[in-house]
Inverse folding.
């Protein structure tokens, strides 16, 4: 199914959904410190969404074989790439990096963004990884202009990551965002060659297209495994990972970042 193009009115609502997501991120970011649990961070995000008449989009989400996701945010620490489940038993430690993903429904539309934060003082290598992942997101956003295709956006991410010495997650992608959290197009972090097992559809970018770009960079090998909780994705070799994400809209000029405060 081709990507659903949004009207100016729809984009206004999506901008609000994105703003609420950004506010939740801001409050969570402020609370991140050694000793806090990931469940406490989840409660902060839940409150912000509720105060803005928004519903958490991950709560109860259960695609395929996954059990329903039990929280508002995903909180993924160090080797955990994405989909970490908040827990009262999981305490942040000095030197950790933590990826927080928040998505909400607001007036029928989704906003979706993720950021990875330092916990206290972190190593130089962890800092480099965070900077690189943010740069990959920026490169992919810059490539999100008319005249380009989804494959150009994917290649921009891969090129930036590769130049800085990192792998990207191959099996996990960004995605179209609108009335559904996951619409066409898929927005990968790299682009496959012909006859690959990856079946992403390439599309020419069009005004009104809205999608989440989400670079997931890995300091070691890109082999991933899902833990027994049915959600948490970790690197097999234990290497550090980082994840940044914005939802953007394609316009006649620069892309509009929907998930800013
Ligand atoms: Mg997300």
């Amino acid at each position: 199914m081709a990507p659903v193009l949004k009207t100016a009115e729809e984009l206004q609502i999506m901008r609000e959904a994105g703003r609420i997501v950004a506010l939740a991120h801001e409050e969570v970011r402020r609370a991140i410190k050694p000793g806090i649990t990931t469940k406490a961070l989840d409660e902060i995000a839940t409150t912000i969404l509720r105060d803005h008449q928004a519903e958490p989009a991950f709560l109860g989400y259960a695609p395929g074989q996954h059990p329903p996701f039990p929280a508002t945010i995903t909180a993924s620490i160090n080797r955990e790439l994405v989909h970490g489940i908040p827990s009262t038993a999981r305490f942040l430690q000095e030197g950790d990096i933590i990826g927080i993903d928040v998505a909400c429904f607001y007036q029928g539309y989704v906003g979706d963004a993720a950021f990875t934060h330092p916990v206290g003082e972190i190593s130089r290598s962890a800092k480099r990884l965070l900077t690189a992942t943010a740069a990959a997101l920026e490169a992919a956003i810059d490539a999100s202009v008319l005249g380009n295709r989804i494959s150009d956006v994917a290649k921009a991410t891969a090129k930036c990551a590769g130049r800085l010495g990192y792998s990207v997650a191959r099996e996990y992608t960004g995605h179209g965002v609108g009335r559904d959290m996951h619409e066409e197009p898929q927005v990968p972090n790299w682009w496959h060659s012909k006859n690959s097992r990856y079946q992403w559809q390439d599309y020419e970018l069009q005004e009104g297209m809205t999608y989440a770009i989400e670079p997931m960079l890995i300091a070691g090998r890109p082999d991933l495994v899902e833990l027994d909780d049915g959600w948490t994705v970790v690197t097999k070799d234990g290497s550090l990972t980082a994840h940044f994400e914005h939802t953007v809209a394609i316009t006649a000029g620069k892309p509009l970042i929907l998930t800013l405060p």
